[in-house]
Amino acid sequence: MFESVLFYAFGAVLLASGLRVITARNPVHGALFLVLAFFTAAALWLLLRAEFLAIALVVVYVGAVMVLFLFVVMMLDINLERVRAGFWRNLPLALVVGVIMVWELISVVAYHYFGTVPRQLPAGYSNTKELGRLLYTDYAYAFEIAAVILLVAIIAAIALTLRRRKDTRAQRPADQVRVRREERVRLVAMPVEKE
Fold first, then answer.
1. What CATH number is given to the structural domain containing 60?
2. Engineered SS bond to 36: which of 17, 43, 74, 133, CB 3.0-4.6 Å?
3. Are residues 12 and 74 in the same domain?
4. What is the pLDDT of residues 8-18, one digit of tens each?
5. What angle do CA 143, 145, 151 make, to 5 degrees?
6. How far is CA 59 from CA 29, 67, 180, in A?
7. Domain range for residue 51?
8. Co-location of 2 and 71 in the same domain
9. Nearest Cα to 6, choosing from 36, 48, 37?
């Protein structure tokens, strides 16, 4: 009973924060509501005994992706009028995708209540251990391919943003190492002045 109350409370907060993500006028507020949505989704996954997914959501999305996204949103000067114009232009497609997602959720809930009985898990079952076993045995190649794709994406992002600026002054260590002793010190002979 208490778990059901918590589930519906977190679900209500998740729906409200998700709605505020798309209706907030300020992009920073929208990003902060998305952080709240991630936290409540992680709480729902904890209630569903998917501990690994909950921790991964908090660490990866809230701890890394959303912090980076928040910094980018705060650093950019976003033209809100152009963003709002794009909202109305993309509204029909968004409504179609929303209806499809609602239909999928209804079908999942209907299958849960009218479908087959879920398999009973043995005592001491750990979904994190089972996920790790599946990930590193049955799906090892897919996991490695995803890792290589992410590595290529990181390298591409660095290469695309790396620019050489001509107006900056920098030292070249290779030139400093190649210098000989005669080039470093110059002895100047000056006549002695007598008073």
1. 1.20.120.1200
2. 17
3. yes
4. 999 999 999 99
5. 105
6. 21, 11, 52
7. 1-78
8. yes
9. 48
CB 20 within 8 A of CB 33: yes
Location of structure tokens 């002045």: 193
Q: What is the DSSP letter of 166?
A: S
Which residue's structure tokens are 């980018």?
Answer: 72
Residue 114 tokens, joined: 């009218």
Same domain, 38 and 104: no
The answer on 10 and 63 residing in a single domain is yes
* Dihedral over Cα of 38, 44, 46, 49: its sign: negative
Residue range 87-101, pLDDT digits in tens? 778 888 989 999 999
Contact predicate 135/143, CB 8 Å: yes
Q: Give the distance, in angstroms, between the CA of residue 29 and the centroid of all CA atoms in the same chain.
A: 17
Give the total number of structural domains in the chain. 3
- Whole-number Å distance between alpha carbons of 34 and 117: 34
Rg over alpha carbons for the chain, rounded to the nearest Å, is 29
Residues 92 and 41 in one domain: no
Same domain assignment for residues 74 and 2: yes
Do 52 and 33 form a contact (C-beta atoms < 8 A)?
A: no
pTM of the model: 0.57
The residue among 108, 107, 136, 97 whose CA lies nearest residue 48 is 108
